[in-house]
Amino acid sequence: MTERRRSRRRGFGADVLGSISRKTWLRPATAAPKRKALRNLRFRHGDATNLTGIEDHSFDRVVSIFGAMFAPKPFDVAKEMMRVTRLGGRIVMGNWIPGDPTLVAEILRISSAYTPAPPAGFVSPMTWGRENDVMSVFTARASRGIKSGFKRQLHLRLLGYARAVRRRIPELLRPTMNAFEAAAQSGRAEELTRELETLFREHNRSTDPERTRLTATFLRVTVNV
């Protein structure tokens, strides 16, 4: 989840705070701004369901691109996002769409077959990709309306098949990380890898055998607070 704060001086850009749920991702994320001397960009470890330490109405923009959708308790996520956004501000989300025939939805479908059954009361993160479900978690709180249902395409260009499957995708999608952990314990990790490699080959639109070009569709949601 990424939050974007109002700049104090016009023309100097935005002050940006990124909230990262996995501590293992915090160090590399923190190192990048330091290398480029980006003093207005910071990262912290946080939970999208409880943004402790962030004041009410302190951000002009709250942006989550394929992040907060994977946190549990979607109503708590929406409540916290609304709480830290100033009146007149905006929340923008990019969420994967369940059942979509493009790449990422298919990856998540395959991953679910290798993951243990969720506990009672679990709410699927894919509900964030359904327009009616998104409307339901924000409607009671959005004073200036919600714009949902805008589908956008994300184009991925990666070098090679195996590297993309074995390294990049398991690192970027939390359900796939969970699936690989479970598959490793049950001795099915290679089976899962083969399924994903086959999926990549089927979706690859590149004519270069050393490259992978993929398309994924997501739902863009805009909430005017």
Structure, described:
With 225 residues, the chain is α/β, with parallel strands linked by helices. It has one domain: Rossmann fold (3-Layer(aba) Sandwich). The chain is 36% helix and 28% strand. The chain has seven helices and seven strands, in the order E-E-H-E-E-H-E-H-H-E-H-H-H-E. It has helices at residues 23-35, 74-84, 103-112, 131-138, 162-172, 174-186, 189-203, and strands at residues 2-5, 15-20, 41-45, 59-65, 85-96, 146-159, 211-224. It has a seven-stranded mixed β-sheet with strand order 3-2-1-4-5-7-6, sandwiched between helices. Helix 1 (23-35) links the parallel strand 2 and strand 3 (41-45). The radius of gyration is 19 Å and the shape is globular. The two termini are 18 Å apart. Residues 1-12 have low confidence and may be disordered.
Task: Tag the structure with descriptive keywords.
alpha/beta, single chain, 7-stranded mixed beta sheet, globular, 7 strands, 225 residues, Rossmann fold
Assign an overall shape: globular
Give the fraction of residues assigned to helices.
25-40%
Give the SSE string.
EEHEEHEHHEHHHE
Give the count of helical stretches: 7
Helix and strand content put the structural class at alpha/beta
Report the average pLDDT across residues: 80
- Provide the gyration radius in Å: 19 Å
CATH topology: Rossmann fold
Biggest pleated-sheet summary: 7 strands, mixed
Task: Give the count of structural domains.
Answer: 1
Content of β-strand:
25-35%
Indicate the CATH architecture: 3-Layer(aba) Sandwich
Number of strands: 7
**Name given to the CATH homologous superfamily:** Vaccinia Virus protein VP39
Largest sheet: spatial strand order: 3-2-1-4-5-7-6
- Which residues sit in consecutive blocks of at least 5 with pLDDT less than 50? 1-12
